[in-house]
Each structure stands twice: as C-alpha cells, then as structure tokens.
Amino acid sequence: MYNNTKHYINGEWLDGSSQETIDVINPATEEVFGQVGRGTKEDVDRAVEAAKEAFIEYRTWSVDDRVELLDRIIDGYEARKEDIIETIRLELGSPVTKAEEVHWQAGMNHFVAARDALKSFQFDERRGNHLVTKEPIGVVGLITPWNFPTNQTSLKIGAALAAGCTMVLKPALNTPMAAIILAEIIDAAGAPKGVFNLVNGKGSEVGDAISTHKDVTMVSFTGSGVTGSKIMENCAKDFKKVSLELGGKSAYVILEDADLKASAQRAVRNVMNNSGQVCSAGTRTLVPSSVYDAFVEEVLKEVDSVVVGDTKDKSVEMGPLVSLDQYETVQQYIQKGIDEGAELIAGGLGKPEGLEKGYYVKPTVFSKVDNQMAIAQEEIFGPVMSLIAYDDVEEAIEIANDSVYGLAGYVEGSDLEQKRYVARSIRTGVVMIDGVPRDPMLPFGGYKQSGIGREWGDYGIEEYLEVKSITAYYDGE
Fold first, then answer.
1. Is 147 exposed, middle or buried (0-12, 13-18, 19+ CB in 10 A)?
2. In this predicted model, what pLDDT tens digit does every residue of 159-183 receive, in sequence order?
3. What are the Cα distances from residue 156, in Å, to 107, 325, 428?
4. For residue 353, what are the CA distances in angstroms to 360, 362, 409?
5. Fewest CB atoms within 10 A around its CB: which of 59, 85, 271, 315?
6. Is 140 helix (H, G, I), strand (E, B) or coil?
7. Would the pTM of this model clear 0.90, i.e. be above it?
C-alpha cells in the first residue's frame, strides 16, 4: 500500500496540508508497522467541496448504474481479499482466521446487501395523483470505529452509494489501513471523482471538521457515546441529520430449559469474539438460579478452550486488544469487579502466560455479579463476562432492561413461545434467539443510549434519503 500517508480527495491521492503523520501500531507486537497522514480542516474542506460538486451528477445516476458500480466494488473487494486480511491482522491484532471469517466476510456481506437491497428498493410511491419520492440527502460524513475496520466502513459506504449520496470518510486512527485499501478498490471500480473521499486524522480535528462543515448534510457515526454526543451537538447547530450506533451492555438470557452446554459455548464465544471488542456483545449472562451452578461448570470448560496467541497461527481464536489504552481500561474494569465483590472464576488481571509482548488480556469470567456493579452497567469492550442469577423470567427481563443501553439481546431455550415472549420484552434494537446470527438484510441499531437510526440492507439505504411529496404529479389516469 503506497498511499498510506496521503488522503483520497476528488479521485486522487493527495498530500495533506499538514506534513505530519500518525503511527499505526501492531497491537500484537506493540511496534509501529505503518503511518498515515494527519488530516486537517483544510483537507476536509477540499474533500467536502469535491463531494459537493460530484453530488450534482451522481444524485441523478440510475439504479442500474449504481448497482453496476457496487458490482465492480464487490469484484475489487474479492480481488484484494488477501491484502485486507493481512492488514486487519496487523492493525487490529485479529487472528488470521477471524480476519477472514469475521472481518473480510462482513465487509463483503454489507456491500452485497446494499447492492441487493438497491435492486428492489422503491424510491417512488404513487398516492392518488400525487408522488412520494425518496431522494439522496447530499454530502454525508462517515466516521467509523476501530473494532471492525471493514464491517462498519462497508455498510456505510455501500448504503450511501446505493442512495445516491457522495461522502467523506474518516476511519479510526487505530485501524486506518483497511480503509485505504477500500479507497483503492472504489477508485479502481471507476467511481466518479469526488463521490468517495477519504481523510485520515484525529477525531478532534478531522471528525469535528466534518460534523461542523456547512456543506455536510448528514453524519453517520459508530463509536462511543461520549463522541456520539459531541457529534450530535455539532450537527444540531445547523440541523444536520445524524445516524449514531453507539455502545451496548447486552443481556444474554439463558432460560431454564436451555441446553446448558450449547448455550454456554455460544455465550462464551459471543463475549470473546474479536477479543470482546464488540458493541453488541452479550456481556451480561443471565442464568436461572436453579441451573446456575451447572451452567457455571459449562462456562468454565468453554473458557478454558479459548485459544489466545499469535495472530499468524490459524488455530488461534483470540488476539490482543487494539491498543495500550484499551488494555489498561480493561484491566481497570477487572480490578473494579474484584473490588465490588464479584467472584473471579476465570482469567483476571495481567496477560496470559507466555504472551508478555502485545496487549493481550486473559479471557475473564465473573460470577455472583449484581446488575448494579460497574462491570454489569458499563461497557468494558474487552473479553469480560458477567454471570448474573435470576429467579423467574420476569426478573430476567427486568434485569435485561435495567441498562442505559439497548443495542442487542440474546435468548437461549427450548420453549419457542417463551423465547418469543422474552425477545419481544427486551428493549433493544436486535435480539438473537439460540445463537442464530444476524442477516445483513435485517436492520441493525439500538434503543436508548445505544444510538439513533438503523443500518444494514434497505434500512441502511433509508438513512441516507430525504422524503419529498409532489402534488398533482400524475395526470389523473
């Protein structure tokens, strides 16, 4: 990748107005493996101007033309598969198998979902002699997190392109390299100049410049609640539309008639996936008191089987956390759990044996957790699982909903009607039953402090559209 320190603006790789660069660290080695340019407000201004100019034409592209562009991007994404996998392994610390099966595949799924949703999307609706039409909102700012470098970028880019919008992307500083490859793919696919622009840099500089720019009509952000609140405040000043996918502290509800072994396996893997750096992870596992001890035994067996280690090793399932800051944050939460009186039954403080280099964390499980403890209420963003006992289903629902977040929920059991009841009762944007994964065509987003708006598939395209009604559009026939 020879474009690392440049920004992609108006169809060209350009030096930034600042000559400064930012190091990108490999979290498995703690060593610098690359650099990106430190973008400025001036770089954002150039990118937004290019997107504004490109919007004039791109908004008029037919559905077929946009589908063909997405087809070419999908082909290019497939062709760069090995580059993307290796880049995510290096910048995120993802084990190579997960870099392919989770990260690369998620990016592919979202580009395909955007294309397929576009093919059948109804932009126009006749009501009597009048027309209701959905039009692209304009220039959009896309600000993406570090934990899923292709998932979050592809779902936003794909939906915005499908809607007919032009865009400026600011990827996370910890994982910017995959976005550079995506820019190269979009360029090779023949996207018109200015339709897609990429500016790397700090959130306090580039992110603020995007969210306060007068010609940006919408901002789509995925990340922390603190940053989401600041973006919302910035956007409120000139009434920009915002789409926010924020944090989570999801409940994983085990019902009394669940298969305890299978449920424990899924619950543990759900928390340890991506080293626990998943906003929708079911980190609060709610277990009936009647089967609590038996479930704990199954959890301990499963945690003990999680393979942590060298990201190049295909047998490894869990790599390091993304940064020293994140490592220290997770260590602080583990200490909080101990101090609050939760029982540490697996993992704990420090690094796994033999992994002194890299930001590795032990897969950690607390039992006898009270839902008011910090480890049960606050998003840790690490491989830390909290086991909470309950006496009946109504109590489980009450505990699940006792959170400022409302992103995801999980239910495991045998009685379908009871699973349906619990799923409908949990106040979250997504609920998964018996570990069945989310379909990329289903909407994704949260209630409460987990965000505003929905992404994925046709719901994702909707976010980038304005609704217009035109009276007497038809001649009355």
1. buried
2. 999 999 999 999 999 999 999 999 9
3. 10, 27, 21
4. 10, 9, 33
5. 315
6. strand
7. yes
Q: How far is CA 418 from CA 261, 290, 341, 394, 400, in A?
A: 20, 17, 33, 11, 15
Pairing of strands 12-14, 21-26: unpaired
Question: Tokens in use for 23?
Answer: 């190091």
Backbone angles phi, psi at 421, to 5 degrees: -60, -45
Eight-class DSSP state of 428: S
CB 268 within 8 A of CB 252: no
Distance, CA of 446 to CA of 448 (rounded, Å): 7
- Cα 400 to the center of its chain, rounded Å: 22
pLDDT of residue 475: 87
Distance (Å) of CA 112 to CA 10, 104, 211 = 25, 13, 28
Provide CB contacts within 8 A for 350, sequence distance 6+.
Answer: 331, 362
Alpha helices in 175-259 (DSSP H): 177-188, 208-212, 225-236
Radius of gyration of the chain (CA): 23
CA 217 to the chain's CA centroid:
22
> What is the distance between the alpha carbons of residues 145 and 226, in angstroms, rounded to a whole number?
13
| Low pLDDT (below 50) residues in the chain | 1
Which one is catalytic: 245, 302, 412, 462? 245
| pLDDT tens figures, 354-371 | 999 999 999 999 999 999
Structure tokens at 365: 């499980």
245 is catalytic: yes
Per the CB < 8 A criterion, the answer to whether 366 and 345 are in contact is yes
Go through 230-267 and write b for each residue having 16 or more CB atoms within 10 A of its CB, e for each that does not: bbbebbeeeebbbbbbbbbbbbbbbbbebebeebbbbb
CA distances from 468 to 64, 120, 460, 471, 473 (A): 22, 20, 18, 10, 12
Cα-flanking dihedrals φ and ψ of residue 32, to 5°? -70, 130
Backbone φ and ψ for 282, nearest 5 degrees, come out as -85, 70
Extract the tokens encoding 408: 């995801």
Task: Output the six-digit token pair for 461.
Answer: 């395209």
3-state secondary structure of 406: strand
pLDDT of residue 2: 56
What residue has token string 């990260």?
103
Sign of CA dihedral 380, 385, 388, 392: positive
Q: How far apart are CA 146 and CA 127, in angstroms?
A: 44
Check if the beta carbon of residue 359 is closer than 8 Å to that of residue 30.
Answer: yes
**H helix or E strand, kind and range, residue 92:** helix 81-92
pLDDT of 3: 66
